[in-house]
Amino acid sequence: MSPLPSQRALGDLVTDVLREMITGGRFQPGQHLKETELADALKVSRGPIRQALSRLEEEGHVELRRHRGAFVSTLTRTDVEEVHTLRGAIERLAAGRACTRMQDAGFAEMDAVLEQMKSVDTKIDPEDAVRLDLQFHDIIYAYCEHTRVQRVWESIRGQVTVFLRARNASFPDFLEVGYSEHKELRDALALGDPQAAQDGIDKHIVGAYERLKRLNLPDR
């Protein structure tokens, strides 16, 4: 018989499940997340649920309100600006390092993702668009050889997922710009010049940010 997971391991597992449910749209912004209902649904005690909600608050997915409980965070203009500027800072660093470290293997991984993007010639599901987008950028972080940058990316990746989903839902232009913009970034990285890679990142993510700023979001 396999040993039961430790309390910490169980908390991590519950965190992953709830994070995926939030970023996947299972729970809506502002929705009340009741500990007892979540515990019953996941067949765990309230301890791991409480631990998971605390972690998700740190990541920005959940808001814990005193005497009221946990609520799914609502996307605001402040959230978009803060996550965008943080992502821009760490991805510039990641790209500047990765472009000199990727070599053939890394670019082969990118090309495989680009081929999937290129093969989409009809309407694409927003979830698939987000998956391909993040899969491409994960490669940059994987090859930057900077553990702390990778950790920061992991801490905001879920929020970036939410932002990309909102962007794709309101501006479904992935068929027009998904492949071309990522191919342009890939070519900038392939130059092996850190400055060119960083300039490529700046150009690449500004478009998504400009679209997000056009959404009707509360200020904070």
From TrEMBL:
Coiled coil: none
Keyword Transferase: no
Positions of transmembrane segments: none
Annotated SMART domains: FCD, HTH_GNTR
Domain HTH gntR-type: 8-75
Keyword Transmembrane: no
A GO MF label: DNA binding
Keywords: DNA-binding, Transcription, Transcription regulation
InterPro entries: GntR_C, TF_FadR/GntR_C, Tscrpt_reg_HTH_GntR, WH-like_DNA-bd_sf, WH_DNA-bd_sf
PANTHER family: GLUCONATE OPERON TRANSCRIPTIONAL REPRESSOR, TRANSCRIPTIONAL REGULATOR, GNTR FAMILY
Protein's name according to its UniProt entry: GntR family transcriptional regulator
